[in-house]
Structure prediction request, 212 residues.
Amino acid sequence: MIGLGLSQSLRQTKKLATSLTLQQSAIQSQQLSLRLELVEQLGGERYQPKAHCPACGRELTPTEIIRGFSHDINDFDTTCSGCGHRFQPTIICFGHGTEVELPFFCDCQTLHKMEGLQHLSPQEISKKEPAVYRSAIVHHGGLKSAFAKNNIDYPFQEIHDWKSKVTPFLGRMQDTVIAECCQVSTSTIRALRKKLKISRFTLKVALAEIKA
Ligand SMILES: [Zn+2]
Prediction:
C-alpha cells in the first residue's frame, strides 16, 4: 500500500471486500443449489424454498431466505433482503407428478420440532410432520443427520443406493456436506472420492464452476 493515497487504498480495499462478499454469496448459493440437487437425487423429491415479500414484492433467493432466519425456535419468519420486512417462507416439494407447498422452518426450529419423533419411521414422520421432515432434509441432509445433532441415534435407514448417485457431486462440495446428505461418515465419502481420483473441494473449484 506504500505510495497509494489513503482514500485510494481504502477504495481498493473496499473494492476487494465487495468482490469477496459477492464471491462468497455466489459460492453460497451455488453450494445450496448443489445440495438441493443432491438431496433430490437421493430422495426423489425436489425442493424449492420460496419467499415472496408481501411488503415490497421481492422474491427472495433460497440463500437469502436461510440467511434471513433469526435462529430462534419461536420466530418462524425470514427477513426480506430488500425492505427488511419479516414474514414466513414456504418450501415447495415437487414429487412424481405432485406439488405441495409447506411452511419452511429454520435449522434450529426443525431440530426443536423433531424432539420426541425419534421412534417414528421416516414415512411416519413425513406423514405426521411433513414440513419438519422436508426442512430436516434441506438443512441437515435428512432425519438421521438431524437427530444426530440432538445426540439421538436414529435407527431407520432413509437413503438407499447413495453410491450410484453421488459420483457427479464429489469434489464439487465438501466431503462433510455430501456425507451428511448421504447419511454416511465423511471418511466413507473421502475414500470413494480418492478411489475415483477426484480432487477435494476448494473455493477455487466452486468459483471455476460458477464462471464456467
Ligand atoms: Zn420486502
